[in-house]
Design goal:
269 residues; alpha+beta; Copper Amine Oxidase, Chain A, domain 1; Arc Repressor Mutant, subunit A; 2 domains; 8-stranded mixed sheet; 5-stranded antiparallel sheet; 30% helix; elongated; signal; Cu_amine_oxidase-like_N; hydrolase activity
């Protein structure tokens, strides 16, 4: 009996461990805007385990600060409005004007870019920072700040586009993969000359998206997983290539165009 309990406990622990690893592996692309202008960057700010990390150089320079990388000590040195700040990769201790400061998260490097925790920005760069969960956006405001236009980015989508897509992928208990796929059907149609050229018009056209024609659809509050799927698709994550159709049953007339099956849905080019 004791052995059975031990085995059962081990199984439960293994399941929990796998679940934790799946959750910890989930990352979401994050937009950043300063005084209502989206900041251009060559990589994406990211949300990891509900913690936001921003690209150090791009946020500091957009705020007209100076940032220096010291390779020998793996330090980031930020000079901003009379403050001298030093952060070290992999360390949760920073120094501000020589005084020790405890970070809630450690800076890290990925693909040649340095990431720092958003909280450090909000507490030390003298600006108001707001996290917008619905659109996964860091909204920074600083009075009197003038930003060079070349630091701005014109996004290819709007917050409204993201909301409509998040609503249309709100389908039962389907996986994130499936929701990203459906989101990409919408975006592929927007790009195709066979369909309307806006997210809104594609979703409300014809019968491909029946939920859009329900009275409650326009006021639907998407779940977090649906918002993540919409964000990922809009930021370029595509798992169905150029598919324009999907259905819960195979299309006999489009067998040559079949691409893949996800969570019981058949996707076609």
């Amino acid at each position: 009996m004791k052995n059975k309990r031990r085995i059962f406990a081990c199984v439960i622990f293994a399941i929990l461990l796998v679940s934790m690893n799946v959750c910890s592996a989930l990352e979401v692309e994050v937009s950043m805007k300063i005084n209502d202008n989206y900041v251009k960057s060559d990589k994406k700010n990211i949300l990891i385990d509900d913690r936001v990390f921003v690209l150090a150089r791009f946020v500091v320079e957009a705020l007209n600060g100076k940032i220096t990388w010291i390779d020998k000590t793996r330090e980031i040195v930020i000079d901003y409005e009379g403050k001298n700040m030093k952060l070290t990769i992999g360390s949760d201790i920073a120094y501000i004007n020589g005084k020790e400061y405890k970070l809630d998260l450690k800076p890290f490097i990925r693909e040649g870019r340095t990431y720092i925790p958003l909280r450090f920005v909000s507490e030390n760069l003298n600006c108001d920072v707001k996290w917008v969960q619905d659109t996964f956006t860091v909204d920074i405001r600083k009075e009197g700040l003038e930003i060079a236009k070349e630091k701005f980015e014109k996004r290819s989508y709007t917050d409204e586009d993201m909301l409509w897509i998040a609503r249309i992928v709100e389908v039962g208990n389907t996986s994130l993969e499936s929701r990203i796929a459906i989101a990409n059907v919408v975006l592929n149609r927007v790009k195709s000359n066979k369909f309307p050229n806006s997210v809104y018009e594609v979703i409300f056209q014809g019968k491909q998206f029946p939920p859009a024609h329900k009275e409650s659809f326009k006021s639907l509050k998407p779940s977090n997983i649906s918002s993540i799927a919409a964000k990922k698709a809009l930021e370029g994550i595509n798992n169905i290539e150029e598919c324009l159709f999907f259905n819960s049953r195979p299309f006999k007339s489009k067998s040559k165009d079949f691409y893949k099956k996800i969570d019981g849905e058949y996707f076609y080019k």
